Amino acid sequence: MILDSLELLSYRNYSHILLRFNPHLNMLVGPNGAGKTNLLEAIYLLSTGELRRGKRDTDAIKWNESFTWIRGEVYYDDGRTSKLVTQIRIEGEKAFSINGKIVPLKRYLGAFYVVSIFDDDKEIITGGPDKRRDFLDDFVTNIDPEYHFILDRYRNVLIRRNRILRTKDIDRRLLDSLTELLIELGEKIMRGRYSAISIYNRYLEREGDRFGISVKIESSYLTGNIDESIKIYKERFNSSRTKEEALGLTIVGPHREDILIKVNGRDSRSFASNGEIQIILFLLKITQLEVIREIKGYKPVFIIDEFLNRLDSRNSRIIIDVIAEKSPQLFVSMISKREIGIQGTVFNIDGGEVINEETL
Question: What is the pTM of this model?
Answer without folding.
Answer: 0.84
